[in-house]
Amino acid sequence: xxxxxxxxxVPLFIVFSxxxxxxxxxxxxxxxxKVNLTIDSSFKYLENFRNTPFYEDQxxxxxxxxxxxxxxxxxxxxxxxxxxxxxxxxxxxxxxIKGIGHAGNQCFSIYSQLLANExxxxxxxxxxxxxxxxxxxxxxxxxSSIFLEFNSSRFLNKIFQxxxxxxxxxxxxxRISSLYNEFSNPDLSIRMFFLENQxxxxxxxxxxxxxxxxxxxxxxxFNLELTDTKNKKTYIIERKSIVAESxxxxxxxxxxxxxxxxxxxxxxxxxxxxxxxxxxxxxxxxKMIDIVKGKNNQELKDFKMLLSLLKTKEVNASxxxxxxxxxxxxxxxxxxxxxxxxxxxxxxNDFSCMNFWNTDTAKYDKGILKDIMHxxxxxxxxxxxFIIKKYKLLK
Amino acid sequence: xxxxxxxxxxxxxxxxxxxxYIFRFFLSNNxxxxxxxxxxxxxxxxxxxxxxxxxxxxxxxxFATFLISNVLKFKKKIWGILILLLPMLLVKFDLRIDFYxxxxxxxxxxxxxxxASFRIMGYYMDKSQNEKMIDFVTYFxxxxxxxxxxxxxxxxxxxxxASQDIGFLAINSENFxxxxxxxxxxxxxxxxxxxxxxxxxxxLFPETSKEIFHVANSMYAYYFFLFFDFxxxxxMALGIGKMMGINVPINFTNPFLAINPQDxxxxxxxxxxxxxxxxxxxxxxxxxxxxxxxxxxxxxxxNMALVLTFLLMGCWNGLRFNYILSGxxxxxFSAIHNTxxxxxxxxxxxxxxxxxxxxxxxxxxxxxxxxLVSIAMYIFSGRCPY
Amino acid sequence: MxxxxxxxxxxxxxxxxxxxxxxxxxxxxxxxxxxNKVNSSVQFxxxxx
Lengths: 395, 386, 49
What we know:
The structure holds 3 protein chains of 3 kinds. Chain A is of the alpha/beta class.
C-alpha cells in the first residue's frame, strides 16, 4: 500500500500541485492572451449573447445621461425597422432603448437571463414582448439550443452561486433538467443544475449526489477563477430616474403615414400582408394555431414564474402582447382565453400591458402587422407611444 | 448520466472503489457480490437514464431464460434467442404500431440495451438445459456492472462469476496498480490522443471533398480516431473493473499490426469478435455443414458463414447502408483470406507471396490489412463522400 | 531494488506531467477551440441504442 502511494499518488499530487502553482505561467505558454475587445456601449440591439459575450456586462445597466430601457422578446425584434423602439426612441430621447432577442427567446430564456442578473432588477425598466406563438403546442417552452444562446455558463454560474433566490433557483434547476437530455456535452454549470435537481428528488438521492455536487462545485470555482477573474466584482447599478424631455411628436401624422405606407406594400392580397411575404410563404393558405391540449402548458408555467420573479424583484416591467393575423389564423379565437389570462395575470401584478390581441377580422387594425405575426412600422409606432407614455419620457 | 460521459462519473467511480476498499475490512468474502450489486444498483437508480427499463430487462431476461431452458425446455435454441432478443430486435427494426398512442421505440429503447442483450444471449447459449440457474445477484451484477454497462467489453457469465467469486481477495495493491495503469492508459488514449486526432487531424480537409488525398487523409485519421477512442474506453473499463475487483476482458491489442482478417478480430474489439464466433459463426457453420447440398463445398460453406456473420455485425450497428456495407466488406475480406489459406494448404505453397522473405511477407500483409480495414472503417463512419 | 523504485517514481512523475498538461491544454476553459468538448462515442452509442 505504501508503495502504491509513493510511486503512484505522490507523483500525481506533485504534478497537480505544479499545475496549480504555475498555472499562470502555463496559461501564458498554452493560450494566447485574448485581445481586449472594445465594447460599444451604445449598441441598440443584440441578437443573442453567445455571439457577443462581452455585452453580458452591459445587460440591465444604464447610460450616463438617463436610464436605459431593455426590450426583450423574440423574432419581432429582428429586421431593424425604423420604428423599433431601440431605433426610434433612442434617436430622439436621452433615455435609450436596447433590444435583445431573436426567434425562440421565450419566457424561460428571459427568466433565466433576468435571474442571473437579479441584483440589477430592482426598478429596472424592462419591456417583454409576448408572442402568442410561444404558447402554441409546437413552440411550447424554450428550446435547449436557444436557451444556450442567451444563457452562458457565466450567467448560469451567477444563478447557481446565488443563494438568496431559492424558489427561483429551484425552478431553474428543474427546467434545465427537463432540457438536459437535449444538451450535447453540457457545460459544468448546466450539469450542476441537473445534479442539484436530481439530488432534490429524495433523501437517498441527496446522499448519493452530495459528494458529486461538492466536488463539481470545487471544479467549477477553479474554472471560474481561470476565466472570470475580472468579473468577480459585482456591479452595483444605481437606478436613475428617467429624464422627461420635451420632444415634439405628432402621433396622428406618424400613424397615418406609416399605416398608409404599410397598406401600399400589401397590394397582392386582402390580408394586409407584405406582397413579398405573401407570395413567398402564405399564398392564400390559411393556418391553424396548434393549441396546447391539457394542462401541460410549459410556456404558461414559465411565464408565471417570470411574472413572479419580476414582482418579487420589484421590476418596473411592462408587457406587449402581439396579435396574430386573423385572416391567416382562422382558429385564433381558440387562443383568446389564454391571452386573456396572460393579461389578467400581468395586470393583477400591477404591471402595465399593451394588448394587440384581436381575432375579429372586422375589428382588425389594418396594417398593424407586416406579415402573419410581426408588427409593421405602424404597429411599432403604437408600441413607441405606449413606452413613451408608460415610462413618462415626455414632459 | 451515461458512464464515461462526464467528470461526475469518475467521481462516482472513485467513491465506489473507496467503498469497496473500506468494506473489505468489515465484510466476509461472500458478501462481495452483494456490495457490488448495491453499488451497481445505486448507479443505475440514481444516475442512469431510464433505470426502470434496465431493471425490467434484467428481470424479464432472467425469468425468460429460466422458463425457456428449465421449464419449457425448447429443443431449438433459436426460439429462445428470439424471445430474449425481442426487445432489442423491436428497437432495431424500429417497429411503429400506429394504433398505439406512442412510438414503440420511445418506450422500449434505452442506453445499454444492445450490450445487455449480447450478454443475455451469451448466458443462454452457454447454459445447458436443466442446468441450475445462476443466482440472481450474480446475474444482475453481470448485466449491470457499471464500467462495462454501456460499451462493453462483452463479458461471459462464467468468466464474470469466476472473477466475482474471488471477491475481496482481488482487492489488493497488485491489482490496483494494474487497474490504475490501464485506466491511465485509457485516459491518455481516449481523452488525449483521440481528441487530438479529432481536433487537429480528422477535419483537416472538408468531409465532402472528393479529392483522393483528402479522402485518404480522413480515412486514416478516422481509423486511428476510432481505435484510440474505443480502446480508450475499453482500457478505462478494464482498469476500473480491476480496481473494483472484477477482471474485465481485454478488448484491444494493437490491431494495426494485424496480418490477416482473422488476426485483426483477435486484436480489435476482441470481445465482439469472440462473441460472434462462439454464438453465431460456429452454430451457423454447423447448421450449414448439416445441409446435404453444401457437403461437397466445405470452403464455400465456411465463406458463406463468414460473410453472414459480418453482415450481422454490420446490421447490429444499425440498419443503415454504410454499416451493412462495411460489415459485408469485412466478411468478404475474411472469405478471401480463408480461400487463400485453403489454396495454400491444398497446393502446399504460398499461392500469393511465393517464396518471398517471411519478414517481407509480414510487412506487406500488415500494410494490406491496415489499408483494407481503414477503407471498411471509413465506410462504417458514414463520412465517405462517394 | 532502490534504483527501480526511484526511477519508477520519476518516470511516473514525467508520465503524469505529460498527461495532466495535455488534458489541461485540451480541456481548459481557456482553450477556445470550438471543439473544446469531449467528443464522446458514448453519445454515439447512446443515440444508437
